[in-house]
Amino acid sequence: MSTDTSFYSIIDYTVDGPRTQTELVDAFAELQDRWVSFYPGYVSARFHVSTDGSRVYNIVHWASEADYRNFIETSDTEGRVSDIAAALGGITGTAEPRMSGIPTYTVVREVGPRAPESGDAV
To answer: How far is CA 100 from CA 10, 12, 67, in A?
Structure first.
């Protein structure tokens, strides 16, 4: 398996139910498209919702940390933050951020699939 040099921003929100999950995903998908998707090194944004309706994770994938840093340094942060606040204000339910500190990560290890071998736990 090759080494993944990608960089990620993981945005975590607590929400008050499935309807709010849907509204938050829709709002943040639009924000990703409007503010982020055209920057060099942007790979994708994946949205994960908990099955109990209480959490939303937005995992933004960048080709490298340098690409992410370029986005942070050259984008209109004030405008983006203003649009995020407006999007959150338009949600009918409650959505609270759960990040502490800067929510950025690098991959340090990945375990992928393989064929079973004798002696494996079953």
So the answer is: 11, 10, 22
According to the model, what pLDDT value does residue 99 have? Answer: 84
> Does domain 7-106 match CATH 3.30.9.100?
no
Q: Taking the model in full, what pTM does it have?
A: 0.86
Print the SS3 string covering the chain: CCCCCCEEEEEEEEECCHHHHHHHHHHHHHHHHHHCCCCCCEEEEEEEECCCCCEEEEEEEECCHHHHHHHHHHCCHHHHHHHHHHHHHCCCCCEEECCCCCCEEECCCCCCCCCCCCCCCC
Q: Where are the domains of the chain?
A: 7-106
2-20 tens-digit pLDDT: 567 789 999 999 999 999 9
Contact 7, 67 (CB under 8 A): yes
Closest CA to 28 of 103, 116, 85, 87: 87
